[in-house]
Structures are given as C-alpha cells and as structure tokens.
UniProtKB/TrEMBL annotation:
A Pfam family this chain is assigned to: RRM_1
Leader peptide range in chain numbering: none
Source organism per UniProt: Wallemia mellicola (strain ATCC MYA-4683 / CBS 633.66)
Lineage, uppermost ranks: Eukaryota, Fungi, Dikarya, Basidiomycota, Wallemiomycotina
PANTHER family linked: RNA BINDING PROTEIN (PTHR24012)
Any one Gene Ontology molecular-function term assigned to this protein's record: RNA binding
Chain ranges of the RRM domain: 7-83
CDD domains: RRM_SF
InterPro entries recorded: Nucleotide-bd_a/b_plait_sf, RBD_domain_sf, RRM_dom
Name under which the protein is recorded: RRM domain-containing protein
Keywords attached to this entry: Repeat, RNA-binding
Amino acid sequence: MGEVDKRRLYVRRIPKVLTEEYLRKYFSQFGELKSIYVQNRVPTWSNSKYAFVCYGYAEDAAEAKEKATRIGTSNLNVEYGREDSGRNDIAPSNSLIIRNINSHHTTKAVRASLEKYGKVVYMTALRRPVYGNMRYCQVCYQRLRDAKKAHTAIRSGKFYKGAIVDYDSEEYIASKIEARGLSSRNYRAAKERESNRFSNK
C-alpha cells in the first residue's frame, strides 16, 4: 500500500448534478491540475459522488484541502489520496462508511456482522439517503487492522451482497469517540500502535 501523496485529493459528498467541467474549473482556482477523475456511474439511491483530483504541487493541493470544503450548500469531505492507488483512495483509518445495505437489514444485525472482524467502538444507526431505499452507516473499530480486515472482506463480497465500503474521515470519527469518553490522546496513541503493528506484519 502506497504512502499518502500530498498532491492528490480524494473528494467525497459532491452533489451528483455537478459536471466534470464544473469541478475542473472549481479546483483549478487553487492551482494547476495534473488530472481529475469524477465518478460517472452514481447509484440512483445516492445524491452525491466522489472525485480524485491531482495537482502538480503539494502546496496547491494543501490549499484546496483547506479551502474546498463547500460547494453551494453542500459540505465536501476532502482527504489526501495514495500515490500508487488506481482509485487514489483515502488513507486507511479505523473508520469505515458502508453503503448499499439492503433495507431489510437492521442496525443490530449489521453491527453483529461487522463485529466478526473486531471490536466496534462506534456505529451509527442505518440511514437512508434522500433517494432510494438502500441504506448506509458509519462504523469505527478499536484497532486499525480490524478495520482493514472488514474493508477487505466487504470489498471481496464476504459481507452483504452489493455493499460498498470506503475509509471514512479520521477527524470525523475521532470526534465521535472523544464524545463517548475516550480521550483523543489515548485514541491517537492506540491507533499509532496498531498501525505500526499491522505494517510490520
């Protein structure tokens, strides 16, 4: 798995009505773009899409990451991507966002399935997007390696059929954990220990 590339951005929660031409113009205000890829096939149940934006200079990407947080009334989620990933995914974290969960599954059942991969310290109730009946949730594992195991299993189809998974924002989930009584210092220390242990295996 490649290192985080400070010239690449992974942008989520983009309103699906926005075109590649519009997004190219929007992100070009922060610097010269080397490339941009915008998700073309957006599920009918989703009202947002993602894009991968690559700048020529890390300084331009850093400015975009800091300032490109909102388009119109929509809040964007902007993270650095990886240097050798074809999709330039968000860097792995303890947190996952899982979409395309069939509506007949309950929150309790989904959590039980996810806990097969490790201890879950936080999970949202299943939510339904504005369009469609398929649901999504956000989940955080205590250990990074367990989140990676779950991520791999879901992507390989060993979870629910058709489920889609991505790593979620570290800042978002850390704030949720801290609100539940786990200090951010202890959380970061535990995360670093698990990351080092996983990378050495």
